[in-house]
Write a structure and sequence with these properties.
352 residues; Rossmann fold; 2 domains
Length: 352
């Protein structure tokens, strides 16, 4: 077992070990420790750290660095990620790889410093203008944050796509034991722009929109086929299946374990990729399941829409889909137990 370390520090060190060569960003709670850590760690290794004058400047520095075929990272939270959306859209236009870390905080506008899952709609749908998607990874522990940051750079380069690690305020601030992967060698992609004149078109410029659309669709279909990740518990005999990610997913896992110990037939799908959403997990569910229940940390439920779509695709369409949204406070096991009982007694209205 590794040493105790704060979540934001751990994920910053993971980025370093994954070979990040540029960090450019702007401070915002609850992600600021990522910047603070990298402000000394990157120069220590001869790499580039920039505290930009704004979130917009930071993401556009990442855009320029990504053109050079090197690993680049930016991090923010809530409104800061919103400000980066134009840059993310352009990075997607040119099919460049980079990693974005979102340490999600609760609320609209400026929001609050509380932990939340309020950014699901925006980040799993691309976020900016145009037709594109980003791979979105959702850890539920400090160790998984490290593992997924390491993976994020590999996926970004494999598919030349923006890859987001969607952490949460609580996960960034908590401390847990953690082991780090080995240091990767620094690399430069063979398609990188190097300042030399060439007739070779190395980066997509969308000169033919129809061709580009077909190529993007094929790439997204490949990602959906190969990169769905999830944790599954007790799906084969479950009468009710909980679906939850991140810290709420971790809490729900404990609820499911306790209910199964009591003889209750319940299961869990914990999405690790929010996009592509793990539809394949629903193929493993007991065909006689009575309902699906999302546990989310937001106002009224967001992931519940993707669960309902997956149920329609993979199972019959008349299975009820419920949502348990917990507003502004961390999900508590006792509340999930209480509300699950309300669902079983017909006191909780389904969403779909």
């Amino acid at each position: 077992m590794g040493d105790m370390i704060k979540g934001n520090d751990a994920i910053a060190e993971a980025a370093v070990r994954a070979g990040v060569q540029l960090y450019a960003g702007y401070p915002i709670t609850p992600s600021t420790e990522v910047m603070e850590y990298l402000s000394w760690r990157m120069p220590e290794l001869g790499r580039t750290f920039i505290q930009a004058e704004s979130e917009l400047a930071g993401i556009n520095m990442v855009l320029g660095f990504a053109f050079c075929g090197k690993r680049a990272l930016t991090a923010s939270s809530g409104p800061g990620i919103s400000l980066k959306q134009e840059g993310i859209s352009y990075i997607s236009k040119y099919r460049l790889p980079c990693v974005v870390l979102n340490v999600v905080r609760y609320g609209n506008g400026l929001g609050s410093l509380r932990s939340g899952q309020s950014d699901y709609f925006r980040d799993t749908r691309g976020g900016g203008n145009g037709d594109y998607r980003c791979i979105v990874l959702a850890p539920s522990s400090v160790q998984e944050s490290v593992d997924l940051m390491y993976l994020a750079f590999d996926l970004a380069e494999r598919y030349r796509i923006v890859t987001e690690v969607m952490s949460e305020s609580a996960l960034g601030q908590m401390m847990e034991p953690c082991e780090f992967p080995p240091m990767q060698e620094l690399t430069v992609q063979d398609w990188a722009l190097d300042g030399k004149y060439t007739h070779e078109r190395r980066v997509a410029f969308m000169e033919n929109y129809v061709t580009t659309a077909h190529e993007n669709n094929a790439r997204y279909e490949e990602i959906k086929e190969k990169e769905q990740r999830y944790e599954a518990v007790g799906l084969e005999d479950a009468e009710y299946v909980f679906v939850s990610y991140g810290i709420p997913g971790r809490v729900t896992h404990g609820v499911v374990n306790e209910l199964r110990a009591r003889g209750e037939k319940v299961g869990l799908i914990r999405p690790i990729t929010l996009w592509p959403f793990p539809e394949k997990a629903f193929e493993q569910v007991n065909p006689n399941v009575k309902g699906f229940i999302t546990v989310e940390l937001n106002d009224y439920g967001q992931m519940v829409d993707d669960v309902a779509l997956s149920v329609k695709k993979k199972l019959r369409t008349d299975i009820p889909v419920y949502c348990l949204p917990y507003v502004f406070e961390m999900v508590k096991r006792k509340d999930v137990f209480r509300d699950f009982e309300k669902i079983r007694q017909g006191q909780w209205k389904e969403v779909y």
